[in-house]
Amino acid sequence: MSVGRPTNIGDIGLWADRSALHEACVLGRVLQVRALIQSGLCVNMMTADSVTPLHEASQRGHTMCARLLLEAGAQVEARNIDGSTPLCDACSAGHLDCAKLLLAHGAKVNLSIFTVSPLHEACLAGSLECVQLLIQAGANLEAHDCHLGTALHVACYGQHHDCAKVLLDAGANVNASKLHEMALHHAARTLSPDLIDLLVSYGGNVYARDNRGRTPRDYISPDTACAQRLLFYECQPLQMMQLCRLAVRHTVGPQRLDRLTELPLPSPVLQYLVSG
């Protein structure tokens, strides 16, 4: 049975308007979800924050509950008050099976411009498997959120090296800007030497200045290992073989990087071109 919406405007956004179906999806009670659907309860009912039962099931990884909802007509692209879809919620918690289910039912991997995308959410969570799934499904690597920047910014901010590597291998722009701030600025501020090495190896600009006129090295103490690394890269340009690799990848473009292995080149060279 659904609980009525609150009449006091001060109650909006609380739990007062949640339905039995919402609660069953939160708890993963598959039999109860099936019974409530069979009783005729609307599968697309929303809370005051526009949260649907499918959002709840997806966020908690209750794949069977999500499947029942989808088969009963749940809207796979429903947006909550923050603009998040069920796929965003599944990826934010690293629920791979649930993400696969939603994609199989038509969930969009790319949302409107300047909105947090499922790929952003997966990178925030450091969910490598979800990141790989979304890239395979055609996620826009340059999707930009006005607060977070690109998925690469997010991965570096969270120090998720593996996610950043997968994004870069897939062709993400290493020098994408967020208020003139590059992913390398994040790597420096979080004192992540491995990320600094990774970003520079993919062409990260150590001289880039943000909207405050600061380079990545300007954000850290000069006596740290990261500062010494950045100083080294400022004084020591990439080797010719590294520059050639970057030039080839840039010429091929991100849409065709997966076809690099078709080039008539020795296997070690192909491996170097693909992932360094």
Would you kindly provide a written description of the structure presented here, covering whatever features stand out?
Keywords: ANK repeat, Repeat. By secondary structure, the chain is mostly helical. It has 3 domains: 108 residues, Ankyrin repeat-containing domain (Serine Threonine Protein Phosphatase 5, Tetratricopeptide repeat); 128 residues, Ankyrin repeat-containing domain (Serine Threonine Protein Phosphatase 5, Tetratricopeptide repeat); 39 residues, Orthogonal Bundle (Elongin C, Chain C, domain 1). It is built from 15 helices and no strands. The longest helix has 13 residues.
Which descriptors apply to this entry?
Serine Threonine Protein Phosphatase 5, Tetratricopeptide repeat; 3 domains; SOCS box domain-containing protein; Ankyrin-SOCS_box_domain; ANK repeat
CATH topology of the largest domain: Serine Threonine Protein Phosphatase 5, Tetratricopeptide repeat
With helices defined by DSSP (H or I, 4 residues minimum), what is the helix count? 15
CATH class of the largest domain, named Mainly Alpha
* Helix-strand topology string: HHHHHHHHHHHHHHH
Protein name: SOCS box domain-containing protein
Organism: Eptatretus burgeri (Inshore hagfish)
Family: Belongs to the ankyrin SOCS box (ASB) family.
Domain SOCS box: 236-276
Please outline what is shown here.
The protein is mainly alpha-helical and 276 residues long.
Secondary structure layout:
Layout: H1 20-27, H2 30-38, H3 53-59, H4 63-71, H5 86-92, H6 96-104, H7 118-125, H8 128-136, H9 151-157, H10 161-169, H11 183-189, H12 193-201, H13 225-235, H14 240-252, H15 267-275
Helix pairs in contact: 1-2, 1-3, 2-4, 3-4, 3-5, 4-6, 5-6, 5-7, 7-8, 7-9, 8-10, 9-10, 9-11, 10-12, 11-12, 12-13
Family: Belongs to the ankyrin SOCS box (ASB) family.
Pfam families: Ank_2, Ank_4, SOCS_box
InterPro entries: Ankyrin-SOCS_box_domain (IPR051573), Ankyrin_rpt (IPR002110), Ankyrin_rpt-contain_sf (IPR036770), SOCS_box (IPR001496)
